[in-house]
Amino acid sequence: MKKVTTLTKTNRLPYFSLYFLWIGLFVIAPVALIVYQSFFGIDHSLTLNNYRTYLSSSVYLRMTFNSFWFAFLITALTLAISYPTAYFLTKLEHRQLWILLIILPTWINLLLKAYAFIGIFSQSGSVNNFLTFIGVGPQQLLFTNTSFILVAAYIQIPFMILPIYNSLVDIDPAIINASHDLGANNFQTLWRVIFPMSINGVRSGVQAVFIPSLSLFMITRLIGGNKVITLGTAIEEHFMTTMNWGMGSTIGVVLIIIMFITMALTAGGRKGKAKS
Amino acid sequence: MTEKKHWLGRVYLVFAFALLYLPIFYLIFYSFSTGKSMSNFKGFTFSHYQTLFSDSRLIVIVLDTLIVAVLSSLVATIIGTMGALGIYRVQNKHWRNLILSLNNILMVSPDVIIGASFLILFTALGVTLGFGSVLVSHIAFSIPIVVLLVLPRLREMDATMIDAARDLGANSWQILSQVILPFILPSVFSGYFMAFTYSLDDFAVTFFVTGNGFATLSVEIYSRARQGINLEINALSALMFVFSIVLIVGYYFINHYTQSRRIKRQRGGAYLK
């Protein structure tokens, strides 16, 4: 018996040594440092000015609101396209293969996908050719809010489809049959039975899409021109261009707080996750 | 009723898959165009591929990117597997949940936050930005996914196997190397693959910690794309698409041997970090 206890006790330490070093240095320290840095002005003095500026400046508050609004639109659009896709995917045969095809685009570098849209939305690109063809005439598509929302949604669709699909596949078909037997029509079954049972997937999907949507600064730069400023763009700007790390960290802290709120709101019941 | 519904569903799925794949094929299609922009396909040519293969700066960057990916995923797999073995032995539920929550912080944090905070960290420690800082960052953000992939496999392991090995006189090293590791090996490989693709895919974190002298492929594509369209990038993306297919086939080939369905679940929410 003594041997067993020594095994579990002494063996844990060497396993954990490097892992705990990682947690300390790259999980706890960075979060602490970004909070610490947010209390420093551009002249390296300890101050609350960054927060005061942030909360009193209409520029920052409007930027935060806009970023929120964009993320909301992107999430809504992604959900609207993804839910039916996930639903119809569950009806197919060879589902593993189809899901693989949903995952495949996520393995392609995000910047290349954004770059593709620079071509598609450009003045002489295919969308404008189509608009000319149907008689609307060429439009300025690139560097607009709409193009930013469309491209961000495009990039995130697979991350919404996968969790919804997983929760839909887990639904016992007998429950759907029961719903039909009890006289519900297709729409009622979908709205009153299937959707509520897949809500956990929707929650994970929203979480997986909403948080990155606040911070995709490369898409705003490449597709939104410099017109779309999200929280992520503002942080990048403060760290890499104006070198005002204190203000950048303050916005970072705001983003972290929003992240936790989003996670708390989308966390709710985790019953469906137990299956392994 | 069901007939009609299936028909509608099929049409919708065709639309969804077209939406997902058209931009990618559009990109690849124009890599063979003799023109200078992504419109008006004129004639077929391989010239952009020739430019690509004679672009020595880009080739160095591709090699650097691969070196970072191979090394970072290797180290992340070792540390992550050790972490999973440690967490597996923690009996206290509260401690285990605390460690897992800390583990998942980097999975859910937006890339900009990880990048900015790592930049502050490296500056505070006086680390010069470049290959080293990029490598260490990639190791750091790849560790949690390895833990998340290896831990479920460890939980599936029959604990009586370890008791049996001990009763038969195996010491703890033998138990680890001859009983535990062979059992969890498929998930360790999955972890390595995921870490590898995380590293290849990353842009935002690298962008913050890369400094001036060193670039990975993502950072290079970003700076070139900001200057406008260059069909050499299209040729590059065609090659990367083929490479991704090879990788994903490899990943699923290995994944085929792990019975755990959990992996795919994790991927859904976890990928964008």
Any overview of this molecule?
The complex is a heterodimer of chains A (276) and B (273). By secondary structure, chain A is an all-alpha fold. Chain A has a single domain (58-273), classed as MetI-like (MetI-like fold). Chain A has 13 helices and no strands. Chain A has helices at residues 2-37, 49-56, 58-89, 95-103, 110-120, 126-133, 145-169, 173-181, 186-197, 199-213, 217-222, 231-241, 245-267. In chain A, helix 2 (49-56) crosses helix 3 and helix 8 runs antiparallel to helix 9. Chain A is globular, with a radius of gyration of 24 Å. In chain B, 79% of the residues lie in helices and 0% in strands. The model of chain B is unreliable at 259-273 (pLDDT under 50). Chain B is globular, with a radius of gyration of 23 Å. Chain B has 273 residues and is an all-alpha fold. Chain B has a single domain (69-270), classed as MetI-like (MetI-like fold), CATH 1.10.3720. The interface between A and B is large, with 95 and 94 residues.
